[in-house]
Amino acid sequence: MKKTILTIALALVAMITVNAQDKVSTATTWDFESYEKGSVISNGINSINGLYVRGSENEGHEIMADMRKRTGKFADGTAWKSRMVAAINGNGSLKKDVTSKVRPANDGNQKIDRCFALNTAVPGTLTVLIGPRKAVDDRQVFLVFDNQVVATGDASEDEAYELTYKANKPGVFWFGADCQYFLYKVIFTPAE
């Protein structure tokens, strides 16, 4: 009996530790510069230092590295550039299906795969550079925080959109597009 209780206690500690590691609390920038063109970034649910990359093994649902040389400036005037990006087939269901409160690390879900997610342990600002692979009318790139769409960009222009949201509490961010898209950079800045 004591051994069973000890085993359960250790399992709970391990789960809490893993959960704490899955939440981002420090200033972090993610990009895909270390990947080679054509390599698979994710064909499942992978965490890259807290950024959940939700691909799938189904044909066309994996997230691949692609070359996309671009430069620009963030809204604050800081310059950015990219060489390698994540290339993803879109998923418009994400905007309505994250309201099911699926956790970023949960098993694959055809309704919400082909997107990215981030759990934060502290309040802060998330900035995402995202854009369509080619301009397409009546489509959007979007950022969701705690089940609410908080920022969108019209995918009718072939550009990288800066989607930003300042959260005054810890929570879960999801982002993607309802068209084929590129993800350039993701930046989380904790509140001061």
Task: Tell me briefly what this model is.
This protein is mainly beta.
Question: What report would you give on this structure?
Answer:
By secondary structure, the chain is mainly beta. Helix content is 12%, strand content 46%. The chain is built from 2 helices and 14 strands; from the N terminus they run H-E-E-E-E-E-E-E-H-E-E-E-E-E-E-E. The strands form 2 sheets. Strands 1, 4, 5, 8, 10, 11 and 13 form a 7-stranded mixed sheet that branches. The longest helix has 20 residues.
Shape: globular
* Low-pLDDT ranges: 1-20
Helix-and-strand structural type: mainly beta
Radius of gyration: 17 Å
Tally of DSSP β-strands: 14
Helix content, binned percent: 10-25%
Overview features:
mainly beta; single chain; 12% helix; 192 residues; 2 helices; disordered N terminus
Outline the secondary-structure elements.
Elements (H helix, E strand, L loop, with lengths): L1 H20 L1 E2 L3 E3 L9 E3 L2 E4 L2 E4 L8 E11 L5 E10 L5 H4 L17 E6 L3 E9 L7 E6 L2 E7 L6 E7 L4 E6 L3 E10 L2
Parallel strand pairs: 1-8
Antiparallel strand pairs: 2-14, 3-6, 4-5, 5-8, 6-7, 7-14, 8-13, 9-12, 9-14, 10-11, 10-13
